[in-house]
Amino acid sequence: QTLSAREKNVVFIGFMGVGKTTIGELVAEKLSRSFTDIDEEIVKEFNMTIPEIFEKHGEKAFREKEKELTLGICKEKRKIISIGGGAFTQKEIRDICLSTTIVYFLEMSWESWKKRIDILLESRPILQGKSEDDIEKLFYDRQINYNQHHLKYNADEQTEEEIAEKVIESLK
Ligand code: S3P
């Protein structure tokens, strides 16, 4: 069954803290479509914060839940979805998103992104205990997965509003 762009789910990918959730919410609101943030759903399921999930259950349990919820929502239609920055390291998530949804990659340069480390540190267990060099390596390693997408926007110099407008335009 082939769905038109109006019916397809839209998924935002990209590294931590680039604006996936904010842009997803803006797009959903402007298009009167429903928005789901997979991280938020994981938090609800475990009834604890992401750092607590990593600490008490481990990253593996987090990734399992991330996969289950993402694969589940991909069966729906017209959803605007944001997934965590590590989700695309899972092949099953990449495969289902790329084959059933429209995947938007929100790209940012390392130079712009690294200014955000301090504000993200507390809520992102993946960054904790890592040197800036380690984080830079992770940043570049992750780009290989993000390079599998349908459309991309650069978030270095555009506001979240501007990107949301472009996403909406591309869906017309
Ligand atoms: C992660 C990114 C986070 C969240 C978790 C792990 C990652 O989501 O899923 O902390 O491995 O990159 P955001 O990309 O929304 O920060």
TrEMBL record:
<dbReference type="GO" id="GO:0009073">
    <property type="term" value="P:aromatic amino acid family biosynthetic process"/>
</dbReference>
<dbReference type="InterPro" id="IPR031322">
    <property type="entry name" value="Shikimate/glucono_kinase"/>
</dbReference>
<keyword id="KW-0479">Metal-binding</keyword>
<dbReference type="InterPro" id="IPR027417">
    <property type="entry name" value="P-loop_NTPase"/>
</dbReference>
<dbReference type="GO" id="GO:0009423">
    <property type="term" value="P:chorismate biosynthetic process"/>
</dbReference>
<dbReference type="GO" id="GO:0000287">
    <property type="term" value="F:magnesium ion binding"/>
</dbReference>
<keyword id="KW-0963">Cytoplasm</keyword>
<keyword id="KW-0808">Transferase</keyword>
<feature type="binding site">
    <location>
        <begin position="17"/>
        <end position="22"/>
    </location>
    <ligand>
        <name>ATP</name>
    </ligand>
</feature>
<feature type="binding site">
    <location>
        <position position="158"/>
    </location>
    <ligand>
        <name>ATP</name>
    </ligand>
</feature>
<keyword id="KW-0028">Amino-acid biosynthesis</keyword>
<comment type="subunit">
    <text>Monomer.</text>
</comment>
<feature type="binding site">
    <location>
        <position position="63"/>
    </location>
    <ligand>
        <name>substrate</name>
    </ligand>
</feature>
<keyword id="KW-0067">ATP-binding</keyword>
<dbReference type="GO" id="GO:0005524">
    <property type="term" value="F:ATP binding"/>
</dbReference>
<feature type="binding site">
    <location>
        <position position="21"/>
    </location>
    <ligand>
        <name>Mg(2+)</name>
    </ligand>
</feature>
<comment type="pathway">
    <text>Metabolic intermediate biosynthesis; chorismate biosynthesis; chorismate from D-erythrose 4-phosphate and phosphoenolpyruvate: step 5/7.</text>
</comment>
<dbReference type="GO" id="GO:0004765">
    <property type="term" value="F:shikimate kinase activity"/>
</dbReference>
<keyword id="KW-0418">Kinase</keyword>
<feature type="binding site">
    <location>
        <position position="85"/>
    </location>
    <ligand>
        <name>substrate</name>
    </ligand>
</feature>
<protein>
    <recommendedName>
        <fullName>Shikimate kinase</fullName>
        <ecNumber>2.7.1.71</ecNumber>
    </recommendedName>
</protein>
<dbReference type="GO" id="GO:0005829">
    <property type="term" value="C:cytosol"/>
</dbReference>
<comment type="similarity">
    <text>Belongs to the shikimate kinase family.</text>
</comment>
<feature type="binding site">
    <location>
        <position position="124"/>
    </location>
    <ligand>
        <name>ATP</name>
    </ligand>
</feature>
<feature type="binding site">
    <location>
        <position position="39"/>
    </location>
    <ligand>
        <name>substrate</name>
    </ligand>
</feature>
<keyword id="KW-0547">Nucleotide-binding</keyword>
<dbReference type="Pfam" id="PF01202">
    <property type="entry name" value="SKI"/>
</dbReference>
<dbReference type="InterPro" id="IPR000623">
    <property type="entry name" value="Shikimate_kinase/TSH1"/>
</dbReference>
<keyword id="KW-0460">Magnesium</keyword>
<dbReference type="GO" id="GO:0008652">
    <property type="term" value="P:amino acid biosynthetic process"/>
</dbReference>
<comment type="function">
    <text>Catalyzes the specific phosphorylation of the 3-hydroxyl group of shikimic acid using ATP as a cosubstrate.</text>
</comment>
<feature type="binding site">
    <location>
        <position position="142"/>
    </location>
    <ligand>
        <name>substrate</name>
    </ligand>
</feature>
<keyword id="KW-0057">Aromatic amino acid biosynthesis</keyword>
